[in-house]
Design goal:
This protein is α+β, with helices and mostly antiparallel strands and 234 residues long. Strands 1, 2, 3, 4, 5, 6, 7, 8, 9 and 10 form a ten-stranded antiparallel β-sheet that branches. Helix 1 packs antiparallel against helix 2. The protein is elongated.
Length: 234
């Protein structure tokens, strides 16, 4: 954990406070990992391309079964599989493009979060023995509902910020930012916040969660340092 943070340990739950920061600045942009989605796209997209190439070849008779008979049924199956895999491959491709923007930005006015493919099923609890089934359900819902292809920014003014908390076991940690997050539509603020906290998994960020929490708390406690940050209108 960072030296310049005071930590309170209670059942592997850590609250970070900027008790001894003496720096004049800290990182204010945090980007997401993309290699996971690049690998997913290459694997799933490659399988989709293979199916979409081989399927029509079987349907047209350019390729036949080993016994010399037409492979019409196999061609139909390959085409269906290719279309389904193409839809699945579109999810990581969308994330790769969306992650050109930082996932989290600390600005003069507050915190800006880049929400990518946020789904109404994100809050599903983890049920032992049903992890893979729920994951497949989540992927299917992202595609069918088109929520997997949505991206929007949400804003939390510094005056609403309450805490930045890192919790969880090693390799499964997460950061929770407690603040009132608002959306903007047609250049106007929506009157009601969309949430009073947002949680991110460690695998989503390229930087460590401790460093992110450290920076958030540093700027939350240092009004002079916040004045040096870019505006979220920029």
């Amino acid at each position: 954990f960072p030296r310049c943070c005071a930590l309170t340990n209670q059942e592997d739950d850590f609250n970070l406070f900027p008790s001894c920061m003496s720096r004049r600045s800290a990182p204010f942009e945090f980007r997401g990992k993309t290699w996971i989605y690049v690998a997913s796209f290459l694997i799933v997209g490659g399988l989709a391309a293979f199916s979409l190439v081989m399927g029509p070849l079987f349907l047209t008779g350019a390729i036949k079964r080993a016994d010399g008979k037409p492979g019409t049924e196999g061609g139909i199956a390959l085409c269906i599989v290719g279309v389904l895999l193409s839809l699945v491959a579109a999810l990581p491709l969308f994330r790769i493009v969306a992650l050109r923007r930082p996932l989290l930005r600390l600005c003069r006015e507050g915190i800006v979060v880049n929400l990518i493919a946020a789904s109404s099923l994100d809050v599903l609890p983890q049920i032992p023995g049903l992890g893979k089934g729920l994951k497949l359900l989540h992927i299917a819902w992202l595609i069918v509902s088109l929520q997997g292809f949505r991206q929007h920014l949400v804003y939390a003014p510094w005056r609403t910020f309450q805490a930045a908390q890192v919790s969880g076991f090693k390799m499964a940690r997460e950061i929770t930012i407690v603040a009132l997050f608002y959306r903007m539509a047609d250049g106007r603020w929506q009157p009601n916040p969309i949430d009073d906290q947002l949680t991110f998994q460690e695998a989503e960020f390229a930087a460590s969660l401790d460093k992110i929490a450290e920076s958030v708390l540093f700027y939350a406690a240092n009004a002079a340092a916040r004045e040096q940050l870019p505006s979220w209108d920029g």
